[in-house]
Structures are given as C-alpha cells and as structure tokens.
Design goal:
The two termini are about 40 Å apart. This protein is mainly beta. It has a 7-stranded mixed β-sheet. A 7-stranded mixed β-sheet has the order 3-2-4-11-6-9-15. It is globular. About 10% of the residues lie in helices and about 35% in strands. The protein folds into 2 domains: about 200 residues, Jelly Rolls; about 100 residues, Jelly Rolls (Sandwich).
Length: about 325
Amino acid sequence: MTAPTTVRYGELIPCKTAFIDAHTPGSDQKENFTIIGGGVSESADQHVHITTPHGFNIGAAGQPPKCRNSLHSHRTAEVFFVLSGRWRFFWGRHGTAGEVVLEEGDIIDIPTGIFRGFENIGTDYGMIMAILGGDDAGGGVIWAPQVIEDARDHGLILGENGKLYDSKAGQTPPEGVHPMPTLTDDELADFPELSPMQVVGWGVRRYNDMTALARHRPCKVIGATGIIRDKPGFEVDLITRTSATDTPHAHDRPSVLMPMRGHWRVTWGQGADAGAEVLAPGDTMSVPAGLPHAAVPSMTGEASLFHIVSTDDPAGPSWLQ
C-alpha cells in the first residue's frame, strides 16, 4: 500500500509571479505556494507539490510586512488558517465593507461570491495556509475591476484564457486570445457587500476557543455539524494533545494532516507496510485513501493539528445553509 506523501515547510517552492498583481506596488513581494492540487495560479511558473486529486486544494501565501493580496473572489470555498504572523482580512467591492484581524491559529471561512483580500500587518514574514474547494478550485480567480486595471498599468495582462502575459518582458496574448474583460456594473451587482457580523460572526473562529473545544475530542471546525456550519465540499477538524488517539483509522478518500503547534508522530500500515514520520508546523501530509494511520504528539508542550478530508457535498457556494 502507498505510504503518505509529506511536503516539508522548508522545502516549499514559491512562485512570485502567480497572479495578476505580481507587479503592482504593495503586492509585488508576495509568494504563492501550491501544495495539493492545481490551485488557482495564473502563471506557468507555479510548482505543484502533490497532484493527486483530493476533492480540494491546499495552498499557502507567504508575505513580508505591509504586503497585500488584491481583491478577488472565488466560485468555491476559501478557508485560511494563520500559520505565522498577524493578518488583516478585508472584503467588499473596494475592500471597505468590513475587516478582521487574525492571529496565529485562527481560521476564517470566507463566503463565496464576495471580493476579499488580505495583508500581513505583523512585523515579520508571515504565512497563511489555504484550503480551496473542488479539484479545479472553481476554475480560477475573479478579480475586482481596479485590480486588472492597475496590473495593466504595471505591465501584466490577464488573458481571457486565464493566463498571464508580461508586456515588460515582451509577452503578448497569442492571436485570438483577448484580455480578460472587467466585470460590468450588472455583474458587480451580484457580489454582495456583507457586514462584519455576516462574515466574522459566521466564519471566524479563534485558536484558543477551538483548542478549548478540542480538549476531550477533536473539534469539528468546518462541516455540517461544525462550529462553522458550512458544507464546502470538505471538513476541517482541530486535534490537540488531549483529543489525539493512537488507535489507527482510515478514510475512503485521501486526507490531509497539517500541524499548527508542536511535533506529531504519524504512524501507518502494518507489518512490512508499516511506517512512521514526524511532522512539524508548516508541514503537510497527504494520507492515501484506505491507509490505517494515527497521529499523536511526539514531544511535550502545546500540540495541535488540522485534519482535512473531502465530503460528498458540492464544492460551490454553501455558506449559511
């Protein structure tokens, strides 16, 4: 039986030209990582670490202080948890409908169909981990009109085929491929301006609260019965030292382990197929379907781990159902 595949934090391969705002001042220092699945990168330079379909995508964004990700939207769920740093998330047509600051370990499930962005407001390089619904992540990114216009002023053109072309490097869309049109006023009317209560009250959960709920059993963070009641095509659990078990279990589909705090020893298989590996914060492990495995902390101190597995729910808009 196939062993798990692990992507180490220190071995992540970044892409600095992943999106249309790669040259736009204030956004030109960000790094994008695609860990599992094709992601939503618009650049052929994006490296994909694990291509096996999981029913969702796993990615990450690394940014220095004061660097932001421009306003965009997705057709499927977008969930973030803060691995390191301090981050401001904002939303709305112009990014002024609301905002929230997330600390390390906090998680946000951003409703589909709204423009959102984020920036590192900490003092050091920060990293946020992302889960995107569906194997194709909704077919790409929908940008606010001003983002496309600003990018064009700085040499980047997004083709209607979803690919980027750098005019500063002499690139132009091939014959028959037109620039991506900006959304019309009628189309923009379909993107609601949600209030802070609608976004924060529904889709933000704090790390300390989740670990308190995970004291005796794993905390169902996102799911039909989760503390965020959403069905985005996957479920997210938080497991802590006191709710972890060394009893092996298996899933009928691939699952993912992502430590937040501490070191975790993952064991799997039996006999000649048995194996073990220690994961640290920032590492991502993909466990194959049907493989019995268990994860427990390997050292003393605080320990927490996010567990993600797909469901049979559609990967499209589902919030507040």
